[in-house]
Amino acid sequence: MTWKILSATVLSAALLTVTSPITAQESEKETNARAACFKEAHAAAARQGQASTLPQGDAGQYAYDAYVSCCKRVGIRP
């Protein structure tokens, strides 16, 4: 029984390292893309807040929509 648990643990650890290798360069690229999307979201919220008579809560929705669309466009998970 113990050897089954041990072998399952070793196998899952090996699969995790093989299936998800993220290099530092890929991680930095994703971080930079995410920062750019946050900037777009803040700009969208600011535009909406200045140019609208709608309640302030709607600016947050515009920011969220801008962030999600930017993430999809760049190819990262929101």
UniProtKB/TrEMBL annotation:
Residues 1-24 form the signal peptide. Keywords: Signal. This is PsiF repeat-containing protein.
